[in-house]
User: Which sequence fits this backbone?
């Protein structure tokens, strides 16, 4: 996924977990994001304890989920045996032949995870990856001392309350992941074979574009994304669009004024329309060229199982795809995850978003952010955007 914080390989950590009574040695290279390295080490140690007759040499590389496809395809033979990746890379991974199909414990993996996560990990009836999270989405944070629970239901209410308090809010319309909120509110996104198909230049798309422009010109909107929201909320900002990874910082800043909910409705084409979003799952894959497919699959299975998903939540507040963990009292009590679940009712699965989508949509949003749309023909811009997305 293009929106995740991307990390290059900046460190390699090797740990040997030596067992007793057997000379078997298994070398496994595991890639994951920087913030997951401690978690991965704990998972590897516990996994090794479950296999006392085997010596595991685990090596850990720092590779963000958003960089996984590029890094693996550079040299699949030397890439990680097990790696985390964003779900919109799944189709490219499968087409490149670098994922080992999930063939062990598959019934349990399907049963223990949310249907949406299983769907995302599956192509043409075959499961290619292990669901690890169900928290790859966005929603609305707000300062409840400025924005009431009624105000936050509509973008009009947010604008009015923000202006009254001399505050602004962020809605990153030049971030293609979030720009989708407007076009998907009444539009569609799908695939024709491997070609992306969208209808963002029809009458609904034009109305969405005008509504987006009206927000940008409201006097209450401010450009910016995660960093700007975290830094400004509670002082210059009344709130804005964000994801679960911002929750701890924002809650620490706002304290009892911490508010979080689904995205608001917006006035589009003269009526209130619920803003949509993308919803995704972070996955764990096994390299088709691994020398230890059985151990690699078993570790990926364990890494994404109930025990480890609960630990991942406890350590990093990661939203689970595991059904049992999602019902754990501490998860249910997490307001950001509750808001994400609320917004997911209006979200599109991100798995089928092709690479051709991101650049054209970002370019359109950038025109809006830069205030250039009034000097350009909006319909022409939409037609150009859609043509580029669909490869015409």
Assistant:
């Amino acid at each position: 996924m293009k929106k995740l914080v991307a990390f290059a390989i900046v460190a390699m950590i090797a740990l040997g977990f030596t067992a007793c009574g057997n000379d078997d040695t298994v070398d496994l290279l595991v890639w994951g994001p920087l913030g997951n390295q401690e978690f991965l080490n704990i998972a590897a140690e516990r996994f090794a304890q479950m296999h006392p007759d085997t010596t595991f040499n685990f090596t850990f590389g720092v590779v963000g989920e958003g960089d996984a496809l590029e890094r693996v395809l550079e040299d699949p033979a030397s890439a990680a045996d097990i790696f985390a990746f964003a779900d919109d890379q799944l189709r490219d991974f499968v087409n490149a032949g670098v994922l080992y199909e999930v063939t062990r414990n598959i019934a349990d993996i399907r049963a223990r995870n949310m249907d949406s996560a299983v769907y995302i990990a599956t192509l043409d009836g075959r499961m290619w990856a292990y669901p690890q999270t169900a928290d790859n989405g966005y929603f609305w944070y707000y300062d409840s001392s400025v924005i009431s629970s009624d105000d936050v239901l509509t973008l009009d209410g947010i604008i009015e309350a923000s202006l009254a308090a001399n505050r602004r809010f962020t809605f990153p319309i030049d971030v293609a992941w979030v720009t989708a909120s407007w076009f998907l509110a009444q539009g569609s996104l799908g695939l024709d074979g491997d070609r992306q198909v969208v209808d963002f230049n029809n009458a609904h798309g034009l109305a969405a574009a005008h509504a987006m422009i009206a927000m940008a010109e409201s006097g209450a909107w401010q450009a910016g994304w995660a960093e700007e929201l975290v830094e400004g909320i509670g002082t210059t900002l009344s709130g804005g669009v964000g994801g679960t990874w911002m929750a701890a910082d924002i809650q620490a800043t706002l304290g009892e004024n911490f508010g979080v909910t689904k995205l608001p409705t917006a006035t589009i084409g003269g009526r209130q329309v619920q803003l949509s979003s993308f919803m995704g799952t972070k996955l764990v894959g096994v390299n088709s060229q691994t020398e230890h497919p059985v151990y690699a699959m078993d570790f990926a299975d364990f890494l994404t199982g109930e025990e480890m998903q609960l630990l991942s939540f406890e350590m990093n507040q990661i939203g689970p795809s595991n059904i049992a963990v999602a019902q754990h009292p501490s998860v249910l009590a997490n307001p950001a995850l509750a808001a994400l679940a609320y917004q997911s009712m209006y979200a599109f699965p991100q798995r089928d978003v092709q690479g051709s989508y991101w650049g054209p949509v970002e370019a359109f949003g950038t025109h809006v952010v830069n205030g250039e749309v009034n000097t350009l023909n909006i319909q022409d811009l939409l037609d150009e955007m859609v043509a580029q997305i669909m490869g015409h």
